[in-house]
Specification:
heterodimer, A: 6-stranded mixed β-sheet, B: alpha/beta, 6-stranded mixed β-sheet, 5-stranded parallel β-sheet, 4 helices
Chain lengths: 193, 175
């Protein structure tokens, strides 16, 4: 079921706080318009592909972001400040929040690309690399490098990331609480696979 | 009484940022000083001046990927070593003579509250200081760290999440 381009843009705009000064919205809008324009046929298709190239180059050069046209993005994706790299083959679920400086893509060794579930939050500077699966409602902490699977409702933190269970209770409206910083003595929360 | 133009501060900032207009960190700080100055002016002038400030702030976010809001409390003589990718949340409080490198985020986590950074702190490239944490005076935060708990005075912290790797300043340890 394909939604029309305008409907997509309207929903992206709403998810980005109806604020045109949010670079995250423009990164996503350029990707949507580029994909739509380059899917045309004949002369329209050629013009559309040229427009697609201009939009992608502009996004890369100015906003320092790129979303591959072959990436699968779910509904309600929220790029909180832009500045992200998402490779082709990546699958992203619904209502995912991604902060700035995030890279999602292959790790250059193992074949395959990340699959990210629904309601995942990815903190600033996180890298998710290789054929890994991030479960629903999981959180990736800032500056973490995720190279293994993360089960649902868990937190991945560290370089390389370790998986922690929630130690606190869930906040209001499903808000995600950060883990208590694991001290060397409190290794019982440590659930490294 | 009109607020004084922050010319002396700007001259000192320019000096501290290597006397080079190519240093983007200086421009970040100049916009911050302009924004604070213009908001103290009488009403109609400050409205127009704030529009100009807002336009430049948006340009800063789109082009440099930086965001240093004028309502952030920053102490005396801050240094932004290279101004790219510096994001500081409006509620954060930053002490005197702090050095902030490129790509640093000082912001929110899902815990309510804002970071408080002490005096003479050095924050390395792409470090993230998130949530209601206190960073003590003279602390050093190594590059790419994630600070989500308090940092004691004089400590050096590193890692994701950050831990203390050295508790005394380096100078005293190596005679």
């Amino acid at each position: 079921l394909k939604r029309s381009i305008l409907e997509e843009l309207r929903s992206d705009f709403a998810f980005h706080g109806k604020n045109l000064r949010n670079p995250g919205f423009w990164v996503l809008a350029a990707h949507r318009v580029g994909c739509w324009a380059s899917s045309g046929r004949g002369a329209f298709g050629a013009a559309g592909r040229a427009l697609d190239g201009v939009l992608r180059t502009g996004t890369k050069a100015v906003l320092q972001s790129s979303i591959d046209p072959n990436a699968t993005l779910g509904e309600g994706l929220h790029l909180i400040h832009g500045v992200i790299r998402i490779s082709g083959g990546t699958v992203i679920g619904r209502r995912v929040g991604i902060m700035h400086d995030v890279t999602i893509g292959p790790d250059g060794e193992r074949p395959g690309e990340p699959v990210i579930g629904d309601d995942v939050f990815i903190g600033p500077g996180a890298k998710i690399l290789g054929p890994v699966t991030i479960g629903d409602n999981a959180t990736v902490a800032a500056n973490s490098v995720v190279l293994t699977d993360v089960p649902p409702r868990c937190i991945a933190i560290g370089v390389p990331a370790k998986v922690l269970r929630y130690t606190g209770k869930m906040g209001r409206a499903g808000a995600i609480e950060p883990p208590a910083v694991p001290s060397p003595s409190a290794s019982d929360t440590d659930n490294t696979p | 009484v009109l607020p004084k133009l922050p010319i002396a501060e700007l001259a000192a900032d320019f000096e501290r940022h290597g006397r080079s207009p190519a240093n983007l960190g200086f421009w970040l700080l100049a916009l911050y000083r302009y924004g604070r100055w213009v908001r103290e002016l009488p009403r109609p002038v400050s409205r127009v001046g704030s529009l100009v400030y807002g336009a430049f702030l948006t340009a800063e976010e789109f082009v440099l990927a930086s965001m240093v809001d004028r309502s952030t409390r920053i102490g005396k003589e801050p240094t932004f070593v290279e101004g790219r990718g510096i994001r500081i949340a409006p509620g954060a409080v930053i002490g005197d003579r702090v050095r902030i490198m490129a790509g640093v985020t000082i912001g929110y986590s899902s815990r309510p509250g804002n970071p408080k950074i002490g005096d003479d702190v050095v924050i390395g490239e792409r470090a993230r200081v998130l949530g209601p944490v206190k960073v003590g005076d003279r602390a050093r935060i190594e590059p790419n760290s994630l600070v989500i708990s308090d940092v004691p005075e004089d400590a050096t912290v590193a890692g994701v999440p950050a831990r203390v790797v050295r508790s005394a300043p380096q100078m005293e340890r190596s005679p």
